[in-house]
Design brief:
The radius of gyration is 14 Å and the shape is globular. With 113 residues, the protein is an alpha+beta fold. It is built from 2 helices and 5 strands. The structure holds guanosine-5'-monophosphate and zinc ion (ZN). The site of zinc ion (ZN) has 6 residues, from helix 1.
Amino acid sequence: MTDCLFCKIAAGEIPSNKLYEDDTLLAFYDIDPQAPVHFLVIPKQHIESAASLTEKDAALLGHVYAVIARLTQQLGCAGGYRVVTNVGEDGGQSVKHLHFHVLAKRSLAWPPG
Ligand code: 5GP
Ligand code: ZN
């Protein structure tokens, strides 16, 4: 999508602090970190939010979580981590391109705000 911030980051048109990249996914550090470790995982393909996912995306989602497991291991997040995807206005989604927040290295409160 031409006017999407994360499509531009995925295409390398806007720089990001990349952690991992392959044909389908990109992981990069959040510009406004909410925890000592806070990165985002996005599909390179434009998907608006988790509300648009279907069974056809099962492999993509498995890949997302496998990459998250590997990256958190590499970053030494043995104490655990949280994966969050905000959906729509009430869910607090500000960028309308599916992304998974990964937060770690501090104790995270529950329930979230
Ligand atoms: P949302 O609020 O949609 O769940 O999350 C969007 C996230 O993208 C926010 O945590 C915000 O800090 C991050 N973000 C927004 N613009 C940029 C950017 O240009 N670069 C990076 N690395 N992160 C961004
Ligand atoms: Zn996009």
